[in-house]
Amino acid sequence: MTDSSLTSTVFVFVHGAWHSSAQWAETQRVLAGLGAAGVAVDLPGHGFDAPLPTGYLLPGQPGLLTEKSQLAAVTMDDCAETIVDTLRRVRRYRTVVLVAHSAGGGPASLAAERAPELVDRIVYVSAFVPGGRPRFFDYLGSPENAAALGQGLNLGDAEALGVVRINPLSTDPDYVEELRQAHYHDTPLDRFDRWRSLLSPDLPLAIPATPVTLTAAKWGRIPRTFLRCAHDQGLPPAVQDLMIAEADEAFDGNPFTVRTLPASHSPFAAHPRELAAALVA
Q1: C-alpha closest to that of 237 among 264, 270, 207
Q2: In the chain, N or C terminus with fewer CB closer than 10 Å?
């Protein structure tokens, strides 16, 4: 994009599991310096207003493994509608680019399917693409994902809790290291603790478990880019490539533009400048 085109462009950011709009702040600042606007969405159940398990901040975290989440009733529709509402608000810009990270790819894809006229391009940053398989769980359970780190982070029974629950405030050094390796292994150690303290513990189960159906006439007509994270240990490149290939096969009239970042699963933490440069490229 040229500088003049950037001034009429807005990037709408959708975070991944357990994150929030705050994860995009540094990337947004870089984009602002280039002349582009950025708006970050908090999906239902995320952000500073996210309800926490009652014992989460107490000594010993009582009930963390068994207490049903207040977010159990959050649906994929709720999440998609939150994104569509934001897209409607920013449509005054000439170019709207929808950017999704990780599990945020499901709600973002459904939002684009429902309102393709509001999206000029959709960018997946190591994110779930339901073009080939409708549920994120379908890819997380694939052989290509067998070596992924972070699978030991989940707590309790997700069906009973209504969420996929982790413990960002864990004091177990092995647990904390698995979290770091899965999501932030290229983030400086002194910054990693700040990043994990911003995470919320509950991801509504509907986000990875609900099927998302896409059509060629709607989602399939939107130009799309996939930013591969080459050093991702939480969603390995083999799974990213599988999602790209299956979506391109299912929607062969409009294949992905693919770019690669030398980054972990969370480039917004360690490489915001490189991420911003890739977004405007």
Answers
A1: 264
A2: C
